[in-house]
Every structure is written in structure tokens, then in C-alpha cells.
Amino acid sequence: MATPHITADVGEIAPLVLMPGDPRRAERIAKDILDDPKLVSEVRGIGAWTGTYNGTPMSVMASGMGIPSVCIYATELYRFYGVKRIIRVGTCGAMSPNVRVRDVIVATAAHTNSSLPHLFVPDASLSLAPSFSLLHGAGHAAKAVKDVPVHFGPIYSSDHFYLVKPATTEGLIKLGTLGVEMEATGLYATAMAEGGEALAILTASDHLFDPSQDMTAAERETSYQAMVEIAANTLVF
Ligand SMILES: O=P(O)(O)O[C@H]1O[C@H](CO)[C@@H](O)[C@H]1O
Ligand SMILES: O=c1cc[nH]c(=O)[nH]1
After folding, report:
1. What is the pLDDT of residue 221?
2. I need a surface site. Which of 57, 60, 141, 230 has the fewest CB within 10 A?
3. Where does the record place a coiled coil (predicted)?
């Protein structure tokens, strides 16, 4: 059975999924960490690979950029493919002065400027949070990573990469927000709506206030080792 955006047969995508935004990062991650990775869908260039991670079936599939895109793929995976757990492995801009480029952030909540939290329930703005069991697992998995700082805290999902409003950034930082990206809110909302589990783990690819260490486009595709190690071990925790 295919969906409008995935051509894999049911059973060809594992219940555990790693989901970067970038399709090229997805392919690299799949080939790096999965044994015997097989390409099972590539509609619109969004590749999905399935193999095993330390003997457990696991898939890697990209989400594309932005909340509408991640909502499409996550909904189809939870609703039609029996996926149980999705962990986003993305890049973000660091906001907090305590986070440096290349640090890892585990998103304990996702603030947003998107209208999505208002769409599911009339007259309510949902609190968008990851599943507790994945967050708990990430706490354990992060302990094995010694060489990269791992921060736990809220992040901000923005609908516009370039619309950075100083007053918004300042207010978010005062509330302890660690970084900005574009999908976690959509993934957390979709998991709640579809009865799945979700978490976002991010690598800071740039800093809003100090561009001196910012990653190049190539580094954003390839610098993911600590984040992916935590995410894969959390999926199987
Ligand atoms: O690196 P990925 O996972 O795509 O994540 C970040 O990068 C993209 C913007 O450049 C957005 O998708 C944002 O969320
Ligand atoms: O969405 C993103 C991703 C990386 N860096 C940013 O500033 N924003």
C-alpha cells in the first residue's frame, strides 16, 4: 500500500524511525549506522531506508523543511505504516549563550509561531512536548556521549527561517529557550494526534549572536555523530 508521499509497502518501514530534515543527511545516516540499509521509498527525493541497528529494525527517513512537511510524513508513518517512535535529528540555530555550535540539544518542549497548536482542539493552544519515555531514554543515552555537551530544554519552531524578530528572540531566551529550528512542533503535535511517540534531538549548526563558528552547508549534512548516537540508542531504549 502506498500513500501520496511514501511508496514503501507496509512492513518495509520499521516501527522506529530517525528523521532528519535533509534527505542527503538521511542517506548518510542510514548508510553510517544501519546494517544492510535498503531504500524503500523516494517520492519527491525524500528517501526512506530500512535496515537494522544493533540487530533491531530501524528506518531513516527525511522530513523535508518546515512544519507542514514533517506533519505529512509523520502522519503517514504513524497512521499507515505502524510506526511507533520518530526521533527528529536536525540542525538548529543556538539562541542561548550557554549553547555553542556543535553542541546537542534535546527538545523537552517546542514553542512556536505556527498556528498548528490551535488547529487540533477548538479554543486551546496545545502544549507541545515529546513523549516521556523517549525523553527518559535520551537522558540515559546522553550519558554515554563524553565529548559533546548535551543540553535539555525548550526550543522554538519557527515558520520562517529568515524572520528573526529581536523582541521574540529576547523573550524566548529569557524563558530558557535553547535554539530555533522548523519542525519539532509539527512532529510533537502529530505524535499526540496519531498516538505515536516523538522526540527532537538537534545539533547547533550556527549561533544567532556569534556566527564565527557557524557550520558550512556541507558540515550541516555531515556533522551529526553525537546527536544520532543518542537518538538511535534512545529509539531502542
Ligand atoms: O537540518 P534540518 O533537520 O533540516 O533542520 C533545520 O534546517 C532547516 C533550515 O535550514 C530546517 O529544516 C531546520 O529545522
Ligand atoms: O531553522 C534553523 C536551523 C538552523 N539555524 C537557524 O537559525 N534556524
Report:
1. 85
2. 57
3. none
